């Protein structure tokens, strides 16, 4: 993901949202259904970004890649609260997503990726013997992931 920017959604100017601080709003949680574990309100912000197909990301905004998005969600304990399907369907390269959390600090930290480059980096286990290395050369990348020999980490630079 590159060219990460703030998206000022028109919906934030409605009475359904309250501006909490710069680029952070509070509104009704679209996933709340009265559960005790879930929060009725959430803090949210919206971002735009471009995917990098050369790094295994989606080709179009209508097909936003799971990675590194999933890493961002995990890293900042946020979730996608609006997919902006219409905007993404019309756009040639810019992706739109709203991120939400019941914790204001999570959204503050998420905003730290604005202007940065986010991608998944392949990591290899570093304690392998020569025999193990030779054995793993014939395995597929999926099998290597399953064995815990390689994995992916989300990087923010």
From the spread of the alpha carbons, the general shape counts as elongated
Summing up helix and strand content along with how strands pair, one would put the structural category as alpha+beta
User: What is the N-to-C order of secondary-structure elements (H for helix, E for strand)?
Assistant: EEEEHEHEHEHHE
Q: Give unreliable regions as ranges.
A: none
The percent range for helix content is 10-25%
Q: Mind telling me the C-alpha Rg?
A: 19 Å
Structure annotation, total helices: 5
Gap between N and C termini: 11 Å
Largest sheet: 6 strands, antiparallel
Number of strands: 8
Mean pLDDT: 92
User: Proportion of β residues?
Assistant: 25-35%
Structural description of this entry:
22% of the residues lie in helices and 32% in strands. Strand 2 (17-21) and strand 3 (24-28) form a beta hairpin. The longest helix is centred in the middle third of the chain and has 8 residues, at 69-76. It starts with a strand and ends with a strand. The strands form 2 sheets. Strands 1, 2, 3, 4, 5 and 6 form a 6-stranded antiparallel sheet that branches. Strands 7-8 form a two-stranded antiparallel sheet. The chain is α+β, with helices and mostly antiparallel strands. The chain has 5 helices and 8 strands. The chain has helices at residues 69-76, 85-90, 104-110, 130-136, 141-146, and strands at 2-6, 17-21, 24-28, 41-50, 79-82, 94-101, 118-124, 150-156.
